[in-house]
Amino acid sequence: MPAQRMLVLTIIDQGASSVSNFALAFLVAHHSGPRALGIFALVTSTYVITQGVVRSFSSNCLLTRPETDDAVMSHYERGGYLTAMLLSTLMAMGVLAVSLALARDFALPFFIFGLSFPLMALQDFSRYIGISRHDPGYAIRLDVAWLVLFLVIYAFLHHKGLVSMPWLFGAWTVSGAAVGLTTLRTHLARGLSRRVGFWLRSERAVGLRFAGQFLVASITNYIVFYLLVLFVISVAAVGTIKLALLSVGPVTVMSTGIQSALIPLASKRFRRDRQGALRLLFLAGFGMALATASWAALMYFAPVHLLRGYLGPTWPLARQLIPLGGLSVTLMAVAGAGNCGLQALRAAKQTLRIALAFIPIALGFPIAGAAISGAHGYVVAASAAAAIYVVAVWAVLLRVSRISHFGEASDSPTAEPLTVEVAAAAS
């Protein structure tokens, strides 16, 4: 598939995937107050973190495989699918255990999520099989099915007057799990231990570092919310921050879609033309930043009374956070393009080192800002931290790309298929 068409279809897929997420967030914001929004922010942060770990260890590794032989790639796909299933099940058990110790209004959504997450993870990995095959139409079908099913269930719940946050969140998770269940017939294979063992021997080094980098990087946007609630600001204040960031969300759909497509595109481009690959990444980052900033400005200057009717009573407070909240999201879009380049080079060591070095800034800046000036201080500090992260990521990308395309910087220098392992997996 031509690169341009691949990019467009992947953005469409990401849009279909994220529309269901934003539909959920919009409905929760419309029907809920600040405290429910705060609880929603924490449970969705947990979803993003657990999904991100599974995706980093499975889906992102699959995207960087350079093999073009379908028979070879099918073994990576089946091994990664089973690995995602196993890892997500272990993480779901942890979420269920934690939910038993929480207060009731927190415990119910966490319990619902823990039950549904393994099948949701299978839906997500199956999407990336389509992207890896340069067949994003398959991913689009999976994501549209999730969205349609969620809207159907919501229509029924709304008719019955069941629109509290746990009901809405439950409808969304059950919809994703139902679509994930349908992928078992296509991708589930026998030989769990053999195929997972093949995946671990092939991708463990890169996958663990990708997952570690994601976990550390998540401190900025997700884990910090738990610390804020525990030690600094109220659940309602976290809900206000969440709504401000949510309002910029529709344009991040495009950014996430571009980043999903950039990894395989840049991976192949680096083999032929280093300067061309860097130019592709830079233009993608600049385009995402421009679109994000424009959307943030649109949301800020839109009539307050109009958006309050759609986004609920918390919107007037959240609107005040848009300028600097939008700036932090804009800067992270630029950093995201640089991270795509590092992942395309399979430079997992470098991405992990950046994330580890960034911990004091990612934790210290937002917490200090919130302690000084509440939600407004949080977005100011988050923007400053994002600016530092952009500089670090792009400086490392330029240095790594000069070393070699897939040489010293890579954890898989030749990126050749493990012929013996593939043969063993097929037997």
Largest sheet entry: none
Rounded mean pLDDT score: 81
Outline? globular
Provide the β-strand percentage band: under 5%
H/E series: HHHHHHHHHHHHHHHHH
Task: Walk me through what this model shows.
The structure is a single chain. The chain has 427 residues and is mostly helical. The protein contains 17 helices and no strands. It has one domain (3-416). The longest helix is centred in the C-terminal third of the chain and has 56 residues, at 348-403.
Quick overview of this protein structure:
The chain has 17 helices and no strands.
SSE topology:
Blueprint: H1 3-31, H2 34-57, H3 59-63, H4 70-99, H5 104-132, H6 136-160, H7 165-182, H8 184-187, H9 192-232, H10 235-247, H11 249-272, H12 274-301, H13 304-311, H14 315-319, H15 322-344, H16 348-403, H17 419-426
Helix pairs in contact: 1-6, 1-7, 1-11, 2-4, 2-5, 2-9, 2-10, 4-5, 4-9, 5-6, 5-7, 6-7, 9-16, 9-17, 10-15, 10-16, 11-12, 11-15, 12-15, 15-16
What keyword list fits this structure?
single chain, 427 residues, mainly alpha, 17 helices, 0% strand, disordered C terminus
